[in-house]
Amino acid sequence: MRKFGMGKQSIEKQIQEEAQHLVEELQKSRMAYLDPTFFFHSAMANIICTIIFGQRFNNQDPEFLRLLHLMNDISDLSSSFYGQMFEVFSGILKYFPGIHRDVHSKVLEIEDFVIKNIQRHREMLDPSAPKDFIDSFLVCMDKERSDPESEFHFHNLVYTVISLFLAGTESSSNTLLHGFVLLLKNPDVVEKVQEEIDRVIGSHHLPALEDRARMPYTNAVIHEIQRFGDVLPLGVPHCVIKDTHFQGYHLPKDTTVYPILSSVLHDPCHFEKPETFYPGHFLDAEGNFRTQETFIPFSLGRRFCLGENLDRSELFLFLTSVLQNFNLRSPKALEDIDITPRRNGLGKMPPEFQLCFLPRQGVAPRL
Fold it and tell me: What CATH superfamily classification does 2-359 receive?
C-alpha cells in the first residue's frame, strides 16, 4: 500500500485531481438543491480505485454506479438494528432468514467484480513494473507460490481488495457527509474556515497538504467533525490471539472484542462539550491547533486503521476545495436542520439532507 501513496504525500496529487472533479460536478448543479451523497461517495471511491485498480471511473459508468449502490446498501443494512444484532449473535442468527442474507448476496456481487478485475490484471501483468495494489499482490503471490504458509494467495487478495474498497469509500464519505450537515447547522464555522482558506490559500491556488499547518481552525473543525460524527462508534471488531487477562476479566483466545470508540470520543472528562459540535476542543487559548490523546476515530494500537493518513488527507483537501469554491445553503431554516444520524449501529449513517452549492467570487483553480 505504501508504494501507491498510503501514508505518503505521493497520494496528494490524486486527491487534488479528484477534488477538482468534484468541484466541476457540483458546478454543473447550477445552484439547485441536491443530496450530495452520490458526489462524495463517487469521489472517495475513485481515490481508492486508483490505488487498488490503477484507474478512476466515470460517474456515469454503469458498473461503477452499481458498485456504489451495493456499498451504500451494505453499509446501511449493516448499521441497522438487525445488522448490529447479527454482528453480536451471528452464531445463532446465521441459521435464520434475515437481512444478513441480502448483505451476503451484495458482497458476492462485489466479489465477482473484483475477481474479473484481478483476472484482467493477471493477463496484463508486468512483474517489473506493478502499476497498482493488485499488480503488486500478484507479484508477491508468484514469488511465494512455493511457500504453503504464505499470506499472498488468491482468497486473501480478493477479500483484502473488497475490505479496502468498502472501508476506503464508506467511512470517509460518511465522515464528509456528517461534516457538511454540521457545517450547514453552523454557518459561523463555515465563515471562519473560509476566512482561513482565503488568507492562507487564496482563490487561485489548489489547496495542498502543506497548507494544513497554517490553518489551525480548519484543522480543528475537521478533527471535531470526526469526533462528533463518530462514524464507527463500536470500532472494528478484533480478536485476542491468545488467552488474555484484562482488568479482572478472562478473555479466551479468539474472543471478539469491540473497542467502543464512542465512549472515548464523547467522554466528558476529556472533551468540554462532548455532545456538542465544538471545534474549540482542538484549539488552545491562543487559537493554535492542539492534539488530543483521546482523539481515536481510527482506533489505536498496532491494529489501528491503515487508511488514517489517507483519510486525513482526503478530508482536508475535499473540504477546503469545496469551501474555497462554494458557499453552502440549506432549503431549511437553521433550527429545522436535523443532524440526527439516520442509522446508529455498527456504523453511524449521516441524515439525509439537501444543500445548494453557491459559487463564490473568484476564479476556480484548475489542474
Answer: Cytochrome P450 (1.10.630.10)
| Integer Cα distance of 32 and 55 in angstroms | 30
Digit-coded pLDDT (tens) for 289-322? 999 899 999 988 888 887 888 899 999 999 999 9
**Residue 167 in grid coordinates:** 472501508
Burial, 253: exposed, middle or buried (Cβ in 10 Å; 0-12, 13-18, 19+)? exposed
Q: Where are the domains of the chain?
A: 2-359
Cβ atoms within 10 Å of 94's Cβ, excluding its own: 12
Cα–Cα dist 343/137, whole Å: 35
- Rounded to two decimals, the pTM is 0.90
Residues 6+ apart with CB under 8 A from 130: 3, 136, 138, 139
Say which amino acid occupies 188. D
Question: Which residues, listed in sequence order, are joined to residue 256 by a DSSP beta bridge?
Answer: 239
